[in-house]
Amino acid sequence: MESLYPHTGSSYSLGITGAPGAGKSTLTEKLIARARKDGHKVGVLAIDPSSPFSGGALLGDRVRMQSHATDPEVFIRSMATRGHLGGISLATPEARRVLEAAGKDIVVIETVGVGQSEVEITDACDTTIVVLNPGWGDAVQAAKAGLLEIADVFVVNKADRSGTRDTVRELKQMLDMTNAEWKPEIVETVATKGEGVDELWAAIEKHRAYQEEKGLLQVRRRRSTEREIKEIVAERFRRRVEDEAGSLLEELVNDVAERRLDPYAAADRLIGSL
Ligand SMILES: Nc1nc2c(ncn2[C@@H]2O[C@H](COP(=O)(O)OP(=O)(O)OP(=O)(O)O)[C@@H](O)[C@H]2O)c(=O)[nH]1
Ligand SMILES: [Mg+2]
């Protein structure tokens, strides 16, 4: 990272998240084509936070983006982050920097929306795109999952299916109730046919321009750098606990289990010993 770092910082990154099967990879493949039209060099990270293996689902991602396989200016990498130190929140910025240093100026990060991964991805990207599908209740679920706060652009993909209007309307109503300064645009797409992709690209560029004009991009990146440094520290501590304090930890577990000590006091002792 030391030798790589001076060559980084020159990309704009898009985070694409949403439920399994929402159409993220299909959409990404169309976005790559759109970005290439403007001469961008594109790196793609398809992250599967639930699997420790780069297996099945990830292979699917590669297959869906196959049409760019022979383009030397497009690089697609699948990553499984479970078991990776620091998980998605450390793996993502690391991988992004490698792509930046390799000259990619647009980096697309696709993550399946499970657990905390949607929120973690917004920490690491410049524009967050949340992909939903038509269907009763999906907009409500999005709200419950905290996606209204993290989305900079909403995509209702599979707009060839019934219920698209309703989902868009519900989403609008819910967004009207929030008082965020940036109102996310809602774009309807049929990713399989490439419909709505130009509109999506325009919405992304609008959000980018908004952030750049208001100086918000810098603020966002600083915040993410701060989080990353803290995460590295936490990870190092975790590792040191395992490497240096294994037997003390075992003792403390006994003490806590037998009610001689509470877990917080045990943690204090462990930290003290480091
Ligand atoms: N009808 C319809 N099907 C679509 C559309 N976009 C994607 N699909 C299909 O939906 C399925 C899932 O698409 P993917 O692009 O793999 O979805 P994903 O969100 O990347 O899936 P995971 O990475 O497994 O979470 C595929 O069979 C696509 O062909 C669309 O706009 N309309
Ligand atoms: Mg996918």
Tell me briefly what this model is.
Helix content is 51%, strand content 16%.
Give the tags.
274 residues; alpha/beta; globular; binds guanosine-5'-triphosphate
Break the fold down into its secondary structure elements and pairings.
Layout: E1 12-18, H1 24-37, E2 42-48, H2 56-64, E3 74-80, H3 87-101, E4 106-112, H4 117-124, E5 127-132, H5 138-144, H6 147-150, E6 153-157, H7 164-177, E7 185-189, H8 197-213, H9 216-244, H10 246-257, H11 263-273
Parallel strand pairs: 1-4, 1-5, 2-3, 2-4, 5-6, 6-7
Bound molecules: guanosine-5'-triphosphate (GTP) and magnesium ion (MG).
Describe this structure in words.
The chain has 274 residues and is α/β, with parallel strands linked by helices. A seven-stranded parallel sheet has the order 3-2-4-1-5-6-7, with helices on both faces. Helix 3 runs parallel beside helix 4. The longest helix has 29 residues. The radius of gyration is 21 Å and the shape is globular. The chain binds guanosine-5'-triphosphate and magnesium ion. The site of magnesium ion has 4 residues, from helix 1.
What's the β-strand tally? 7
**What is the alpha-carbon Rg in Å?**
21 Å
Unique bound compounds? guanosine-5'-triphosphate, magnesium ion
Biggest beta sheet summary: 7 strands, parallel
* Global outline: globular
What is the typical, i.e. mean, pLDDT? 87
What order do the strands of the largest sheet run in, or round the barrel if closed?
A: 3-2-4-1-5-6-7
Amino- and carboxy-terminal Cα gap? 26 Å
* Number of separate helices: 11
Helix and strand sequence: EHEHEHEHEHHEHEHHHH
Instruction: Tell me the helix content.
Output: 40-55%
Q: How much strand content do the residues show? A: 15-25%
Helix/sheet category: alpha/beta
| Low-confidence region ranges | none
